[in-house]
Structures are given as C-alpha cells and as structure tokens.
Specification:
The chain has 272 residues and is α/β, with parallel strands linked by helices. The protein has helices spanning 9-16, 19-32, 45-55, 72-81, 92-104, 144-154, 174-180, 193-200, 212-228, 230-237, 239-257, and strands at 62-66, 84-89, 111-115, 129-134, 155-168, 189-190, 203-210, 261-270. Helix 2 (19-32) packs across helix 9, helix 6 (144-154) packs across helix 8 and helix 10 (230-237) crosses helix 11 (239-257). It is globular.
Length: 272
C-alpha cells in the first residue's frame, strides 16, 4: 500500500508486487526465513516441505493452491513432486508475476495461475483436483463453511487438503485486533471451529499440528530484520505504513508467544 492511500487493499497489493518492493522484500525475507524460497506466510521452509510430504503427491497428481501470491510455493511444489499445480489469487499483479516466473523457470507446463477470488465459487469442475493447499489465507476469507464446501466440491473422492489458520486461544483486546489486522478482511475463529466446519463439509480430519512456536520465532525475526533495515523500509513504505507493519508484526509475536492467538496446520481427507 502506498503511504498516500492507507486502507485500500488494492493499492497495497499493487505496490507490494512492484519490482522494487519485491526486490527489497526478498532481501529482507532471506534474513527472516532459513532456506527462503519466496514465501510470505508465517510458515517456515521446513514446515512447508513437511506439508508437501503429508499430501503424498505423485507426478500424476493435480493440486490447487489457494491464494498463491507471486507463485513461488506453487513452483517449489511442482518442481519437487513433478505434479501439476494451479494457483489462484485475487491479485492480478501477483498472478502476472507468478506466470512470468513460471515461464522463466521452464515450469509453465506444470504450474498455471489464474486470477480468482477464493471467497467466491471456484471456476473449476467438480472433482478436478487430487489435493488442495491453502497456507495462511483462510483467515482472509469471510465464510469458512462455504469455503470448505467449495473445497470439497472441487476435490476428488478421498482427495486431501492442508491449510493453516490462526485460532483464538486466549483473550485479545480491540486494540490488539486492530494492530494485528492492518489491511483488508480478517477472520479469527475460536478453537475447534475449523474442525466442526470440516466435518460438516464432509472431511475427515487426519491431523492438527501446532505451529505456534515456529510462528513466534518467525515473527520475532521479522521484527528484528525490520529494525535493522528501518531506513530502507521507511523510504519504500512511507512512515505511516512502516509504523503499521511494525505494530502488526510486534503484536503478532506477543499474541502467539503468550498463547492467545495460536497457529495450526490441518490435514484432512474428503470422506466418501
């Protein structure tokens, strides 16, 4: 988001995916994540690779990645497993960048990208995918029951999905909520809510893994890296956006460290 137009998510994402900002983000995020591969989530590279292993994909698998961003996780998945992946995101800028990156890496045949709003009915036929991934994006979608039902529709029989979500596990003040959600829509759910909605949509929960300690570590590193590069970030973001991002990451770290907002990965299978 530009400093002159706070509160407008479209402007935020068009600026976020500009070449200048992406270059700065890559430099900083390489200091945050061990073995950084282009992710912008709260998930470590080791955990992302673990997610892929859990899905047990083969070269014949077809996977849907929800809210794929600029495409690096999709390309990592396609390259590592040989499967075909379709990534969707609501940002035209992200999809354009992802498509270009796939072409540059020679992965266009197995990694395709489409601009779609994941909160709306998906533009895919029933039973189109063997697996589905949604990393740190579910909280931006307004209606989890409808989202899970749509995921069940596009997955094949016994198809698997993995997603991450942030869950309320303690009290949070309105000030903290505001600091933690500076841009766009954000939905915090109570502990147990996602499990119930998965069951209602016809999924069998295979595992729930607590990633909160890793979240705390990543958030703390984000704060430290931004402090080290404050001058460059202020120049790129403007003072207002810089302060918003500073409070956002600091609040995220405190809430997770104190066990009031936890981070979980869920693996589920579409039932018969």
């Amino acid at each position: 988001m530009t400093a002159s137009a706070p509160g407008r998510p479209g402007d935020f994402y068009s600026t976020r995916y500009s070449p200048e900002r992406q270059k700065l983000r890559d430099m900083l995020f390489a200091e945050v994540y061990e073995n950084y591969f282009g992710q912008s989530s709260w998930v470590s590279t080791a955990d992302y690779d673990r997610f892929v292993d859990w899905l047990e994909l083969t070269s014949s698998s077809r996977v849907l990645d929800i809210a794929c961003g600029a495409g690096q996780p999709v390309l990592r998945l396609a390259s590592a497993t040989g499967c075909s992946v379709v990534g969707i995101d609501s940002s035209e800028h992200a999809i354009a960048n992802a498509t270009t990156l796939a072409q540059e890496r020679g992965l266009s045949a197995r990694a395709q990208f489409e601009c779609q709003d994941a909160g709306q009915p998906l533009a895919f036929d029933d039973h189109s995918f063997d697996a589905l991934m949604c990393v740190d994006a579910l909280s931006h979608l307004p209606n989890h029951p409808k989202v899970f039902a749509e995921w069940a529709r596009v997955l094949k029989h016994r198809g698997q999905l993995i997603f991450t979500d942030q869950v309320l596990t303690g009290p949070i003040s309105n000030v903290e909520v505001g600091a933690r959600t500076p841009h766009g829509h954000f939905l915090f759910v109570l502990d147990g809510y996602d499990e119930r909605q998965l069951n209602n949509a016809g999924f069998e929960l295979l595992r729930r893994v607590d990633l909160t300690l890793s979240f705390v570590s990543i958030a703390a590193r984000h704060c430290a890296v931004r402090a080290r590069h404050a001058e460059a970030l202020r120049a790129a973001e403007g003072d207002q956006e810089f302060e918003l991002q500073k409070r956002y990451r600091a609040t995220a770290e405190v809430l997770a460290r104190e066990g009031r907002l936890s981070h979980f990965a869920y693996v589920a299978r579409k039932a018969a």
